[in-house]
Each structure stands twice: as C-alpha cells, then as structure tokens.
Amino acid sequence: MKKLIAVILSVAMLIAILAGCTKDSEDNGDSSENTDPTEITDPSNDIDINYGDSPNFEAVYAAFPPDTPMVIIDDSVVTWEELFANIYVVYSSLSYYSEDGGLDLNEPYDEEMTFGEAIMSISQDEVLRLRSYMYGAKALGFTLSDEDTIMFADSLEGWKEEYGGEAGLLEAIWEQMGIKGLELFEFIITTNDLPYFIFNELYGDESELYSAEASLLYAEEMGLIMAKHILFLTEQPEELPEENSNSDLPDPHAKAIEILDQLNNYQGDDFEAFFDELMYEHSDDYEAFEMFPNGYLFADGDMMPEFYETAASLGIGEFSGLVETDYGYHIIYRRPIDINEIPFMYAVNSEFVTLRQLAASSDFSGVLETWVSALNPVFTDEYRSIDIRELLARGS
Questions:
Q1: What is the pLDDT of residue 40?
Q2: 10 Å Cβ neighbour count for 365?
Q3: Which residues contact 267 (CB under 8 A, 6 or more apart)?
Q4: Among candidate residues 133, 154, 170, the one with its CA nearest the CA of residue 16
Q5: How many domains does the chain have?
Q6: 157 and 33 co-located in one domain
Q7: Is residue 219 part of a domain?
Q8: Does residue 341 form part of some domain?
Q9: Which among 7, 70, 160, 249 counts the fewest CB atoms within 10 Å?
C-alpha cells in the first residue's frame, strides 16, 4: 500500500501552488480575508474526523520539554514541540483512514512498516520537508517580502478575532494541529508558504517563465496529444437535449461522408479554419464548443480507444477518415499542442490548470527533491529514544 498520508502531506504544497496559479481572474476579493489557519497545514481540516480511542495527547506532549532538540539540520533545530505536532497530525489523519477511527500501531501499514513505524517515518519526512524549503530559499537568496510578512500578521489578527481572541486561536490550533504556541504556528505557516513564493519567483505567476520547449517535452512524457473532431452522433446521450442534436438525421454515416468529401476536396490555404467552420456547423459535440474550442488536449485513457489511437497515428495538420466509436462517427484533425490549454483530465474535474503550469510544477517537484537530498540531518539521542507505541500509550 502506498504511503497515503505521506502523499497527502507532501503533495499539499504543490496543490497550493496550482491553486494559486489558477485563481479565477474575476476574484478580486480582499486577500486579507480571515481564513481558518488549520486549513493550511491539516489535510483533513474539512473532514469531520472521528479519532476513535485517541491517545492522551496532553500526556504525549509532556514526554519531553517542548524545546528539546530532536533533529539538527545545519543551523536549524527541530524541537520536540515541532516533531510532536507532526506526530499528532499524522496519527489523526491515519486514524481517519482506518475502518473504526482508531489505530493498532502493530498492524502493518504497508509491506515495509507497521502503523507505528509509519507515524514516525512520515513525521520525520515532514520536518525534513520544511527544512528543505528553508534550504532552497537560502540557496536562492530568497526571503519573504515585507508585504508578505505584513499579510501574515494581518491574517493572524484576523484569526484571533475569528476565534474570540488569542486563547481561542490557541485552543483551535492545538485541537487541529497539535500546536501549543503561536511561534511554532507562525513558523510552520510561513515556511509552508515559501515554495509558493519561490515557485512564482522561478516560473512566474502563471508559469509564463517556464519555456515552451520544456513544456512540450513534459507533454510528450505524459503522452499528451491535441486534436479537434467533427462528431456525427448515432446514439443520443441522455444529457444532450434532443433539439441540439443532428442525430435525428436519416443517415449520420451519409452526412459524415459528405463532410469528409468536403474536407478532402478543400483547395484553400487555411485548412484548420475550414475544418472549424464545418465543425461548428455540423458537429454534435457541443461540449467541445464551450469547453475546448481549440481542441482536446488528452492522453491515452481520456477518450474512446478508437479515437485516441487514430489521433495518435496522425501527423500534425492531418485529418482522419471516418472513425466509429460508441458515440457515432468522428472526423479527427490533429493539431499542434498548445501549452496554454487545460488538459482534458483536469478540465472535466474543474481543475483549470494549463499544461504549462503542470509542466512547471513537475519541474519544481524535482527541485524540491534535490533540496531534501541536500540535507544532512543529525538525530539526537532523545529522538532515538522514542518508542512510538510506548509514547502514544502514555496516560491512556
């Protein structure tokens, strides 16, 4: 079994980057609007979690003084307070994914480790992940701007107001994140934000600084192609209104042959414009007109097999004969990939992320991995003394 929670925690940052890249351009709301601070670091924040028979986390927290060094990475020290917060969130998340809301730490988590071992492994990965952001920022000479610092300070005041004061905020971040003090809270929030700002610095707000050549190479690696088509339905989909279909024609096949003949006999110098003209006049794929006016950007598995295989076999600028699928007859036109288009697999899930943004994010993921690899963590005796089963059994 894959490390589900590790994936959730590690990928959360990239999701945040993509979300930042794809903000609706019409969203002109106040950026200082109060937001629940737990949403930033707790991947299960919007889920009503039942932790079952949870440990007595107050007793677990008291196992070491909060400032006890656990891991030393260059000139940065991971204290027990920070390690505990990660253990708390990982345990809580794993509990949610268990069948009864509780955890047997001796049960296998995957083929390599038990749940107890997984909690420590994932928590360790998380503290290293934060330090890798600090390493990368230092290597690039990047620091948060005064504007960013002021924005966080304003957000902090907003959260205090939302939770009825500092005491209420502290209660909330303890319950959701296992954090006792605002200093650690601020460190985790601002450090988690570093990749977002660094990403924009390296690639631009809309990834416009990432090269077209590299984006197209990424598309090739993902097996993406781009094509338009003219569809002649032979079977009426339930979601398509009857009045919006050509499927009531006596013979869709005959109509498709007629349009194909027009394409074959075209003598002009702008074939794609001619194809578009026929497509808008005759195609039954109305979704393409609205969501994909420049064509579908797709990979194997996104479309009917016959459609993908035919499109993949065409050269750029070529069009197919009639291709029959369960929907009807298609005439497919292969066009060059537009790196500013949204891949089909994302668009249908309302994730409006362009190919260029995805390629830049993939590249940045590799950068992040090099930062983690560059760290030289030293684990203290206190860290090595931790027996997670004994630790989580305290006070229970």
A1: 31
A2: 15
A3: none
A4: 133
A5: 2
A6: yes
A7: no
A8: no
A9: 7
Q: Quote the DSSP letter at residue 328.
A: E
- For the purposes of burial, counting CB atoms within 10 Å of the CB of 303, is it exposed (0-12), middle (13-18) or buried (19 or more)? buried
Taking the C-alpha atoms of residue 221 and residue 231, their distance in angstroms, rounded to an integer, is: 29
d(CA 181, CA 198): 27
- Asked if 33 and 172 sit in the same domain, the reply is yes
Are 153 and 271 found together in one domain?
no
Report the C-alpha gap between 4 and 97 in whole angstroms.
9
Q: Residue 226: helix, strand or coil by DSSP?
A: strand
> For residue 94, is it within any domain?
yes
The per-residue pLDDT for 241 is: 52
Tracing tokens 């537009």 back to the chain, one arrives at: 338
Residue with tokens 């190479």: 217
d(CA 355, CA 337): 9
- Structure tokens, 32: 């200082």
> Would you put residue 164 in left (φ > 0), alpha (ψ -120 to 50) or beta?
left
**Are residue 236 and residue 326 in the same domain, yes or no?**
yes
Residues 6+ apart with CB under 8 A from 153: none
| Euclidean distance between CA atoms 249 and 313, whole angstroms | 30
Instruction: Give φ, ψ of 238 to 5 degrees.
Output: -60, -35
- Report the length, in residues, of the chain: 396
Q: How high is the mean pLDDT in each 10-residue block of the chain (396 residues)?
A: 34 39 39 35 33 78 97 94 96 79 83 93 95 95 89 92 95 95 94 93 91 96 97 72 51 94 95 95 88 94 96 97 95 97 92 95 95 96 95 80
In a domain, 141, yes or no: yes
Q: Give the residue among 125, 111, 51 at the shortest CA–CA distance from 375.
A: 125
Taking the CA atoms of 8, 11, 15 and 20 in sequence, report the sign of the dihedral they define: positive
Handedness of CA 23, 25, 27, 29 (dihedral sign): positive
How far apart CA 312 and CA 303 sit, in angstroms, is 12
Domain that includes residue 248, residue range: 225-336
Closest-CA residue to 132 (of 366, 302, 328, 391): 366
